[in-house]
Amino acid sequence: MAVICKFAAALACALAWSAGARADEAATPSYETLLSRRHTVAMLQGGIIALPGAPISTSQRGGNTPFGSIGKGDATVEAGVNVIFRVERDWSFGAGVLFGPKPTSDTQYGGTSGLARTHSRSYLVWGVEGRWLPLRQRYVEGWLGLSAGEVILADRFDTDVGTSRAAILGSRQVTVRSEGFATGLQVGADWLITEHVVVGISGRGNLWLLPSEQACTPIGDCATLSGAVFAFELGLSVGYRIPLF
């Protein structure tokens, strides 16, 4: 009888532990559930943007990145913010902004004129995007996307010689701004590290459609890009995921 009682007690403990484990599993959603549930992700991005056919000048090709020059056009680091809303299992939409915090510069822009000048070109792209998520492996997802928005370019020309003077008498710096339409294809993958932290990698190919006529200043400084321009991006991101329900 004592043996039967001990066996019954052990069986009761085992059943209780099993029920508790199942309850814990039910309370902790699986990665598949987390990825499929509607949520918003706020992401910080960093990477490289390259314009293979658009150097900032004939003497400055390849750009300036932490990895050296890239190609024969312009290349520089980029940073940005993106907010993605997951509407259902396989689709998400969002909006964001990207800019180049440290544009490439050509300190010999004056050339043979003898006038020491510096030229740099800044990029700002903002818009909306849609993503299709056809690949899913536990807590890793692969996606394809489309983007559309506006690109703003600023060609900045600085004269590095001459005496300083009051601002009311003019500036030695002049900026020529141009704006156009930006659209592109993108591909990437995201990894859900925890329930809230997401890291990702992405690549984008963009087409910028800029005015065909270049804007110029009265002294002859002009925008250095016009018409159709191709730009490519490669970046890493880290985001914070907020479930909606």
Task: Describe the model.
- An 8-stranded antiparallel β-barrel has the order 1-2-3-5-6-7-8-9.
- The protein folds into 2 domains: 29 residues; 207 residues, Porin (Beta Barrel), CATH 2.40.160.
- With 245 residues, it is mainly beta.
In short:
The protein has 245 residues and is mostly beta strands. Helices cover 13% and strands 53% of the residues.
Average of pLDDT: 82
What is the global morphology? elongated
Order of helices and strands: HHEEEEEEEEE
Number of strands: 9
Whole-number radius of gyration?
27 Å
What is the CATH architecture assignment of the largest domain? Beta Barrel
Poorly predicted tracts of residues = 3-8, 14-28
Element layout with pairings:
Layout: H1 2-27, H2 31-36, E1 39-51, E2 74-88, E3 91-99, E4 105-106, E5 117-137, E6 140-159, E7 173-192, E8 197-210, E9 227-243
Antiparallel strand pairs: 1-2, 1-9, 2-3, 3-5, 4-5, 5-6, 6-7, 7-8, 8-9
Short key terms for the protein model shown above:
13% helix; mainly beta; Porin; elongated; disordered N terminus; single chain; 9 strands; eight-stranded antiparallel β-barrel; 245 residues; 2 domains; 2 helices
